[in-house]
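User: Some background: our group keeps a shared notebook of sequences we're curious about, and every so often someone picks one and asks for a predicted structure to add to the entry. Today it's my turn. The entry only has the sequence so far, pasted here. Could you supply the structure so I can complete it?
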Amino acid sequence: MAGPPKMRLPYAPAASLRLVPNDSGTAQSAGSAQESDAQEESLYRGIAYAPEQWRSWTETSKLGPDALIAGFSMSLDGGQPFPPQADLPAYIWDRQGELSLTENECQLLDCSLENLTIEQALDGKLLTITPKFTLNYHTRAYAAQLGEIRLVSSHRFVADAEGKPYPLLDTEDAGDPVLYLEDPEDTSVIRQMIHYQGLGLKKDYCFDYHIRQPLLRHWPIGPAKGVEVRTVTVLEQYTSYFMQRAVTCLPGTALWVPAYAPVSWGWSLRVEWEQDNWVITRRKLMNPVVGHDGWQLPHWQGNTLNYRGN
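Assistant: Of course. Here's the predicted structure to add to the notebook entry:
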């Protein structure tokens, strides 16, 4: 028996990463970093090191606890690191310990929530908001890519005139935040990935994307099918992990690792149908906050497509 029809959202998936013009998008001198490289071996986060190398570092306590991983699994259904094994290469991902790491620099210049609006779409209205993050990325140590992994804890539902709720999206059963996806055909774990940035360059990038919720009087599929909708509620908390991956000659010898501490934001909105129009009747925004626990590897099980109320 054929399953329910796919619900096509009335918008194209947004991937609106923009390069922000600045005066520093040219090669910069690595200066003291190059001088120090001549005196000692250059070590890099996210690059594979042979077992004899990293074992000697751990035996002499030059690496902090949990600073090495054997790999990092990233898929639409899960993301988690693997512990190192004695006979396999491992990757440095954390900055703890006594080892001197030659690193790129990533700085968050500005972050905001913008464009909270109800706008017209092809077959209804859309509730939209645009989180915006401007970062300066200086590849002072190695050529690399920069991108974002976006996780969310989400609860979206509609209610009828009597206030009875019908779920649209609910990730509570996952326990932890899940990977945020909007389009079943968009299978990218890393969002808004930049092209490789050469060694010694310093550029500003604006990560801005639209989060959208359709507003429909009659829902076409799922538990709310056929219900005359009176209210639409969105309760979500997002975490953006800005990640980098070094350019290496051999495939599989570099991992995506954090370039910055995770940034969290959220919105709590209720929209009601009043006098033949949608009106925002509840509005609470959690402005972006940089995590105080330092750099973290993202961890998730599942994605928002798995938790839709279809």
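Suggested note for the entry: The chain has two helices and 18 strands. The first strand starts at residue 18 and ends at 20.
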